[in-house]
Amino acid sequence: MAAAAAPVCVLVLGMAGSGKTTFVQRLAAHLHGQRCPPYVINLDPAVHSLPFPANIDIRDTVKYKEVMKQYGLGPNGGIVTSLNLFATRFDQVMKFIEKRQNASKYVIIDTPGQIEVFTWSASGTIITEALASSFPSVVVYVMDTSRSTNPITFMSNMLYACSILYKTKLPFIVVMNKTDIIDHSFAVEWMQDFETFQDALNQETSYVVGVSAVLGTGLDDFFVQLSKAVDEYEREYRPEYERLRKTLEKVQNKQKRDQLEHLWKDMGTVCMQGNTLAGSDDASAMGPSELILTRGTLDEEEEERESDTDDIDHEVTEESHEEPAFRNFMQETRMKYQRRSNQNE
Questions:
Q1: Biggest distance spanned by C-alpha atoms of the chain
Q2: Which helix (H) or strand (E) holds 40?
Q3: What is the Cα 273 distance to its own chain's centre?
Q4: CA 116 to CA 5: how far, in whole Å?
Q5: Dihedral sign (CA 77, 80, 84, 90)
Q6: Is the dihedral of CA 185, 191, 196, 197 positive or negative?
């Protein structure tokens, strides 16, 4: 009886936000639809939730936040340390893959969002070499096509892909993701025709200047390029920022008007209730400051009268003054908000 073929290990790498996890989810769903379920491994300890079922999940073995607390690390340091701890047990993962080789034709490995954490760490090298030494292994580099329309960004992506290719020394596939947003034909043309890419690069504005931070040479050229960059900002970037600012101001002004309308409705209800209760009280014509001064500077006759009348209900007296004071305060607040709204408009 012929031995079962070894499963193909697919290492999915890519920049943060390129859609690695979404690609893995779609790949797994496609294989399930073909009745060829893959063996899926998640190596991202910091991911909150997975959109696909993982056969092996690093989060079940290593608690990312606990690693950060215990070792006093930041996010990237926590991911690296979690991977290092997981790599010490990767021999067990290899045994699980060997047991499932009859049931799964593909092993899909989703890596951390911070690509450099896996690509250039010791644990990433250990995991990659362990897989490649036992199973057919392929590196898949997921690239965000919508963010690579700029020739410079595209070249940066390609250079990073080349660095991974030469480091892993494994078969390499570039997956240009998000073709639902923009077609990837421009990137294929750039890779196949250097002159086309050169034309696109020549149309791109970039500023390069050589300086010596020790000797100070080249700084005059730097300020010349800086002046050109500022001119470009004023010509091309500022109009867009102004448009965004005006849009934001319109949204904020609309929110303020809506809040002001609610406030007017609330104050209108309070004022109507106050007028009904107060009637034609003379104190209603007084401002809050006048009421406070009146209550704080009584005449001598009133002081003598108060000293002889200890049986007066002072709470009732306080309420009779506070009611018109509160009503006048609300009216002043309404006028203040109305003036502010008129200024904004």
A1: 119
A2: strand 39-42
A3: 48
A4: 32
A5: positive
A6: positive
What number of H helices and E strands is found in the chain?
14, 6
pLDDT value at position 4? 60
Buried (b) or exposed (e) across 165-201, using 16+ Cβ within 10 A? eeebebebebbbbbeeebebebbeebeeeeeebeebb
Across the beta sheet with 106-110, the strand order is 56-57, 39-42, 106-110, 8-14, 137-144, 172-177
Please name which of 99, 112, 100, 121 lies closest in space to residue 46, comparing C-alpha atoms. Answer: 112
Q: How far, in Å, CA of 9 to CA of 128, rounded?
A: 10
Euclidean distance between CA atoms 14 and 109, whole angstroms: 12
For range 289-299, the mean pLDDT: 41
Top pLDDT among 304 and 177 is at: 177
Give pTM, 2 decimals.
0.60
Cα angle 52, 53, 57; round to 5: 110
Q: Give the mean model confidence (pLDDT) for residues 122-131.
A: 91
Buried b (16+ CB within 10 A) or exposed e, 249-260: eeeeeeeeeeeb
Share the mean pLDDT of the chain. 78
Q: Which long-range contacts (CB under 8 A, 24 or more apart) does 268-277 make?
A: 270/327, 270/330, 271/327, 271/330, 271/331, 274/323, 274/324, 274/326, 274/327, 274/330, 275/327, 277/323
CA pair distance 85, 66, nearest whole angstrom: 13
Helix (H) / strand (E) element for 39: namely: strand 39-42
